[in-house]
Design goal:
Layout: H1 3-21, E1 29-34, H2 47-52, H3 71-81, E2 85-89, H4 101-119, E3 126-128, H5 137-149, E4 155-157, H6 173-182, E5 186-189, H7 196-199, H8 206-229, H9 232-235, E6 241-244, H10 251-266, H11 282-289, E7 290-294, H12 298-303, E8 312-314, H13 328-336, H14 341-356
Length: 360
Amino acid sequence: MSINAAIMSARSVEDKFSAKANNIPKLLVSADSHVDEPVDLWKSLPQEYQDQLPKLVTWDNKTRPAGGLDPKIRIEHMDLDGVSAEVLYPTMVLRAFVAPQKAQEAAFRLYNDWLAEYCATSPKRLFGIPCLAVYDIDVAIKEMHRCNDMGLKGGLVWQVPEPSLPFMSKHYDKLWAAAAELGYPINFHILSGFSYNHYNADARGMNRIRGSVVIKTADAANTVFEMIWSGVFSRYPKLKMQMVESEIGWIPFVLQQWDYYFQRFTKPGQLAQEHFDITELPSEIFAKHFYATFMDDDVGAQLLGKWGEKNCMWSSDYPHGNMTWPNSRAFLAKQMAEMDPARVKRFVSENVIELYKLKL
């Protein structure tokens, strides 16, 4: 979609919901936006590593806003959209989570340095999430602390791990402990790791939709499932985690089902009684430890009136094709204009500010 087409599409939403847009709070903070990495980011790496990493591309500014690469233009675009601050994730670098260990570690260090410099142009409006290679947890912890010292927040790890390193293993425990101590979340973004975009990158037709909806949602659900049911939060009660760009409509249903089966198989006298590594309902664990982002999720929005007040966070996805820019307020009015204003504030700014301790 061209920028002009995006603006026209957004204006059509604005026209329809402009009267209700005034019900949306002035302060908007996107919990999931993106940068576009410079095409020469890998140039200082050995050629062997460059060959193992995703090729970085130059985006056509006729089809993609230039603020993904240029932070000064980004601030202008944020002002146009009425967005006060953004939490930033990578674009092409998401694909580097399947690179071999040494290339991945070197690439993420370069990217994190560049991201910190990008955010430093407006440190009270731009907040970057560093990428962490988790083959060697000691390396990951060291990088997380280095990035925290540079002003970056949290730590992005693969959402779908390399098969020999499942999240249910104790491989990650030192990282969970370090993140809990630091007070920042571990982040899981779609398309990071050994997911459908890695195994079926050339999928077309119905299989393209299968990946974009069915497998994507299953990947996110599996990650949440393994974190909750393996007892991670019993061991690290201060740990927070965030599911990014998975939308939210599926979450209440899945939690309901997990609660049902937890109660069913732990009921005294139950013939099929099971032992689990958790003692609380999965929905209770989720409420204490997980956050999730949404963009334009009508199904999820219908449930926000009674669920997710402390867990769900709006995102614009700028500068990607799904973005709500430049009329994010109208998109929010479409989903939340009739909702209690105090709840809306939680979704569009307060939750993300509290999670990352943002000082705007």
